[in-house]
Design brief:
Helix content: 25-40%
Distance between the termini: 58 Å
CATH architecture of the largest domain: 2-Layer Sandwich
Largest sheet: 7 strands, mixed
CATH superfamily of the largest domain: ATPase, nucleotide binding domain
Number of strands: 21
Amino acid sequence: MPAVLAVDVGSSAVRTALYDSRGRALRVSEARFAYRTRDDAAGASEVDASHLVRVTARSITQSLRAARSRIAGVGVSTFWHGLAGTDERGEPITPLYLWSDRRGSAAAETLRAQLDVEAVRQRTGCPIHSSYWPAKLLWLRTDQPDAWRRAARWMSFGDLLFARLFGTLGTSLSMASGTGLFTLEASEWDRELIRELELDPGALPPIRESETGLRRPFRSRWPALADVPWFHAVGDGALANLGSGCLTPSRRSVTVGTSAAVRVMHVAPARRPIPPGLWRYRLDARRLVTGGALSSGGNVRDWLVRTLHVDPGALERALRDSLPGSHGLAMLPYLAGERSPGYAPDAAAAIRGATLATSALDVARAGLEAVTVDVVRVNRLLDAAAPRPRALVASGGGLLESKGWMQLVADATRTVVIAGRAREASERGAALFALEKLGLASPAELDPGEAARFGPRRRASAAFARLAERQAALYEELIASQPHNASGEP
């Protein structure tokens, strides 16, 4: 039976695997290679794009060593919002700037003063924020004029990867919709923003669905993939919904990897307004995802464990056995700034209520609870865009590896949380996307199943509500009271 190769380029690692036509990963083919980003106190968050191409190629090579059946095509998942400037041939002349790069915050402020920010959000699905291309491009134009002049093209990582593999320029509807520079309804690059940024429209990639015919030396390196369809990269969040079986509004995806997100998939067109604090992107021409993404997630847990020298096992037991908020702390988890729902440009982490009796374990638990408060806020906002779900489906290593955190989400949202069997939902989504486009399978018929189920506990839910009130008061005092946030709201 034919198989497909799934390539998943995440925020900290590249994963690849072969999947059969029933959407099952062939375990012997799984490969994973971590990579490091460069982050600094000035707000930089970037990676060498050419290095990431090499890491991706290495992972593909390792997966192919286990291939025993015909490979019918390749599906690719990459993170949204990344931006690199390249020359005419698609060779990078800048680093790849990630969603978490905050050096465009001042540029975002400038754009918000010049544009109708709500009209832009409804038109493009994206707020004006440093995560997205408009702010990054204005920052480059004003602060990095040499790079601005030298760049002939602007690409996401998936676009750059395909330019290297095939020698062609293109991007998917999904990746374009996550730039903040693309209109959802007309599916074209936004003319008003292009004028405002003084951007050459020819510098943006055309929309393409797939490529066939690898260029040298990749043809000889991967002969099994040389002449099969490669589907242009799709945003990892949309593919996480696809891979975890969240195909309709009745099941929402809750993903905690490096960052976190809550998303619902629905069929286009969806002309209802996008609720405040949320975004809307495309999976493809037929399907949309509406949701909110947090800058905080597994990165907060990793920072707390590493910095406070907390034992991960002790943290897991404390999440499981203690009532939320029993430490008496209130915390804002914005170590990497804030995206949904407030999009405050200068948000930072803060903690209130610490005493000499406060332990490192208390602070670590408060950090995970604080991330969960924002998950709840996004989930409630989604109620204005879709009916309340029957279940939330957990995905991402940060959540799936912690039964205590999944139970906390169930208690906080007062909704059943299902741990899906798909360990890597975006990777599996890339495989299902390719299988569907090739006519080999229907994702709706390939439910990944359940590994565990967590129901809300009444006492813990009540305790979490009190904790959320403390955190909301701290947010209002330190962040919402500032002159304005990224949505332009008072």
